[in-house]
Amino acid sequence: MRNVFEKIQELEVIPGYSKHEQLVQGFINSIDAKILVKGDQLPSVNVMIRETGFARETIVKGYKELIERGIIESKRGMGYYISNIDTGQPVKVALILYAFDSIQETFYNAFRDLLVPDVQVDVFFHHQNIDTFESIINNISGKYGMYVVTPMPHPRTAGILKVLPVHKFLMIDRFEPVAGDFSYVTQEFEASSYQVFVELLDRIRSFEEMIFFSRPNSDLPVEIMKAFKRFVKDHDIKYQVKKEYLPGSVEKGKVYFICNDRQLWTMLKDCTTQGIKPGEEVGILSQDDDPIKEFICDGITTYSTDFQLMAQKAAQFVLGQEKIQEVIPTVLKRRSSL
């Protein structure tokens, strides 16, 4: 390890190098010179202070930058290790999503396109499984420069996420309370859903009954159900809550609130087969907008947050590394189905 300290000291004579830059570049030069190889353990912070004379905050800052570049990783209780000998490695971003559905795909494509070409984005999916979520977070902690996470509502979520450095962590989509002054770009579900229902009240009243499809223990935010229950009570709307849409069960005179796109496509197919006109004989409201919903069956009424804008804000956080705390508005798009 003596040769590593020498590589750091060599940079002292180069004008313009701060001690932090000397440290980072010294390790990079040591890797390029094959003094350090993948898997090698780096000196502890205390050893670095003793050998270089640098301040503790300088050492810590240098190690953090090397982690952000994906060159080293931190193993809890074991120190720092060389994880990548490609010293041109850019900032690595871990993006944790629910699943690769159309909405998550919209976010990912916009997010990736907005980042500079040499930013590496690795995508992980937790599929609303808390054990999978915990395994992902534990496996990636200390290995990435930035963490962009769609959390899941669960009592264990806050404890799982506390291992991520708060200044490198961005919560997206759903908001879950976590310790610390963390960054987030999320949407709101209860008040916005209720407001959408109220805006559509006249059209909803023109049908006999409102049916909401919601499976127990699904990934649908519970706030939407709370808003729905409050709305039908406040406005005396006849309603049913069903677990799922069963093929062939569409009925005239009903207004359907569907949050699952697979079930929506099945209902629309049944409407076409049975000659039922959405917007006239049945009403349909869908959560989360999608380009195809603008055109299919003359347009499906939707309400959704702007995932393109959410992706833009997330990309700005990654590139600028400045704290952000923002709730993206929900927008109702009225089309012929309701």
Give helix and strand order, one letter per element, not per position.
HHHHEEEHEHEHEEHHEHEEHEEHEE
Largest sheet: 6 strands, parallel
Residues in helices, as a percent range: 25-40%
Number of strands: 14
Work out the helix count: 12
Strand content: 15-25%
Overall form: elongated
Class by SSE composition: alpha/beta
Low-confidence runs (pLDDT<50, min 5 residues)? Answer: none
CATH architecture designation of the largest domain: 3-Layer(aba) Sandwich
**What is the third-level CATH name, the topology of the largest domain?**
Rossmann fold
CATH-defined superfamily of the largest domain: Response regulator
From the N-terminal CA to the C-terminal CA, the straight-line distance is: 70 Å
Average of per-residue pLDDT values? 91
Question: What top-tier CATH class of the largest domain fits best?
Answer: Alpha Beta
Protein name: DNA-binding transcriptional regulator, LacI/PurR family
Domain HTH gntR-type: 17-85
GO molecular function: DNA binding; DNA-binding transcription factor activity
Keywords: DNA-binding, Transcription, Transcription regulation
